[in-house]
Design the sequence.
């Protein structure tokens, strides 16, 4: 419990500084933020690419159409109820799918995994068929609220004073993990992900997830993107890897280590 407490706290503290250091060092900006501001296309390095007049007109028209579709930017009781109902449907169907997989195929998955995959499928189908108008502000509000409640409940149950009773070797191990995570994000994760703005956001998420949990990663990325601009790719990859793919890889490794060192 003490180690978990230390990880949650430290994971939430180092994500922002890591992102700020990388952004300042490599002068990176959110390409999505630039596209909205300039109305043009942006390359992976953040520089605006040249395009023909017709392409610019098409982009402007497309942007205007999207803005008109989401003109009702204010969150209302109707939009909150509608999107809450959609989320409830995703959770219900996803839970049923996870239960079916466990019973039919013997594959034990976390309950939220089925809901996550069903939500991804539903969102992509809706973007093509336009069955329901998705209001991004409402979704962000629900996500922020649920994330805040989860972190508050998790931190309220943690006993920070238990860290006082830790032995010196345990403190050394925990401190070494923090140093390793910082070095790993700066010199391994960031270069491997392409040294882009999205890579910076994913590094912030990696710091939170590596020392804490997936909600730590989401909180870190949200804090950075609110200040420096959005990163759709990071918010797609990090939850998928942190909430599902890591279970497929980490669980067998953890079981093997326990069995190996327990003898």
Sequence:
């Amino acid at each position: 419990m003490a180690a978990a407490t230390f990880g949650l706290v430290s994971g939430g503290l180092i994500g922002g500084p890591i992102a700020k250091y990388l952004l300042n060092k490599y002068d990176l900006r959110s390409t999505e933020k630039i596209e909205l501001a300039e109305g043009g296309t942006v390359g992976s390095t953040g520089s605006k690419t040249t395009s023909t007049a017709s392409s610019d007109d098409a982009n402007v028209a497309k942007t205007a159409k999207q803005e008109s579709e989401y003109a009702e930017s204010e969150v209302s009781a109707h939009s909150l109820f509608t999107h809450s109902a959609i989320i409830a449907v995703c959770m219900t169907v996803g839970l049923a799918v996870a239960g079916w997989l466990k019973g039919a195929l013997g594959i034990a998955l976390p309950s939220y995994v089925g809901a996550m995959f069903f939500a991804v499928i539903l969102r992509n189908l809706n973007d093509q068929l336009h069955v329901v108008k998705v209001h991004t502000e409402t979704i962000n509000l629900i996500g922020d609220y649920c994330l805040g409640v989860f972190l508050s409940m998790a931190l309220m149950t943690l006993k920070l004073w238990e860290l006082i009773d830790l032995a010196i070797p345990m403190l050394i191990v925990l401190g070494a993990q923090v140093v390793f995570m910082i070095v790993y994000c700066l010199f391994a994760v960031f270069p491997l992900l392409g040294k882009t703005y999205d890579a910076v956001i994913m590094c912030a998420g990696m710091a939170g997830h590596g020392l804490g949990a997936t909600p730590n990663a989401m909180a870190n990325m949200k804090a950075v993107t609110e200040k420096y601009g959005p990163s759709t790719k990071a918010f797609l990859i990090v939850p998928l890897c942190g909430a599902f793919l890591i279970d497929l890889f980490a669980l067998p490794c953890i079981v093997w280590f326990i069995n190996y060192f327990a003898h």
Q: What stands out?
A: Confidence is low (pLDDT under 50) at residues 40-53, 66-72. DSSP finds ten helices and no strands in the chain.
